[in-house]
């Protein structure tokens, strides 16, 4: 009986939980989640955001993408995830910065 009870309450894998979290959000809230995930290096939430948002879409008033924000904050695993998902390292923000220049500005190169 205890084994049945334990199996009844199994946590969702991180990616599935992140997808469920984003699915109930409106578009503006999804952007906020993507910004937060990129800034914190939360790869499960970031992977879910990539499945719902344009990979090179502008996330903020500076024209930064998920890749810019992850690179600027030094999150190597998040940057790799985004590049593997075909984020363009050449996309420029409004001021002309790329993900590489954002990483350098953040002291991560």
Automatic annotation (TrEMBL):
Extent of the ANK repeats: 62-94
UniProt key word tRNA processing: no
Pfam families according to UniProt: Ank_2
Keyword Flavoprotein belongs to the record: no
Keywords, alphabetical: ANK repeat
UniProt cross-references to InterPro entries, sorted A to Z: Ankyrin_rpt (IPR002110), Ankyrin_rpt-contain_sf (IPR036770)
Protein name: ANK_REP_REGION domain-containing protein
Organism: Haptolina ericina
């Amino acid at each position: 009986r205890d084994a049945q009870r334990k199996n009844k309450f199994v946590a969702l894998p991180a990616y599935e939980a992140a997808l469920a979290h984003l699915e109930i959000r409106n578009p503006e809230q999804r952007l906020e989640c993507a910004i937060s995930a990129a800034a914190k290096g939360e790869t499960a939430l970031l992977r879910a955001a990539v499945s719902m948002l344009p990979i090179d879409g502008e996330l903020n008033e500076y024209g930064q993408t998920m890749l810019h924000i992850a690179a600027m904050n030094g999150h190597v695993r998040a940057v790799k995830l985004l590049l593997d998902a075909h984020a363009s390292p050449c996309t420029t923000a409004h001021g002309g910065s790329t993900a590489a220049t954002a990483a350098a500005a953040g002291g991560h190169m």
